[in-house]
Write a structure and sequence with these properties.
The chain is mostly beta strands and 235 residues long. It is globular. It starts with a strand and ends with a strand.
Amino acid sequence: MRLCMFHPAGQPLERGWVGRIDGDHVTQLAAQTLQSFFTGGGAAREHAVYPLASVQLLAPVLHPPAVRVFASETSFEFANPAAIRGPGATVRAESPSDTVSQGSLVVLPRIAAAVGADGELAGFTLMAEWRRPGTDPPKDRDFALGLGPVVVTPDELAADGLEAVVRVDGDERLRAPFDDFDWATACDFAGAGTRLYPGDLLSGPPLASVEVAPGSQVEIAVSDIGLLDQAVSRD
């Protein structure tokens, strides 16, 4: 399945609705969040059907309990769940602290997995890890993590061998495959001695970083997942 959070265009909702994308339509599912859909066993009553072209896709997991960004299958750091930004979002180029001069940001494409009800991997999506050069880690990536546009369940997507294309203002800046990543080992490592909750995000290692100037539009595309588009503000 291709799962999403959405709201009909022109009818903004605070959290949106859970949906299943079938071709050029979205079927609303009776779940408050994707986390609750996973907790319910991946099944829910169907409601209204909307043309895909008439809805706004949101971050599929808006408030993940935890975000782990992996450097390898047995090495990760925590990232900020409050930094999640969905498709069409604008990322601030300026540091709110005013301690860092305005300038370009960098974005690192990643594949991220969402955890399901029993600690298993429930699906895969795109992550855009934004970083602010000149800011000391980990605050350099504390402000924005792009996510979306959909979560594709493992029965429809093999996460190995995926290729990403990054475009800035329509110009291709990066085209490269993600390295093979042992998702099962990473999931076991993340859950060792603790508990993984539905909606937890596990991100595989990134591709090379791409510099993005203020005022630019960025697209990260993976054919089997979709296109994550975001913008960088001028202020």
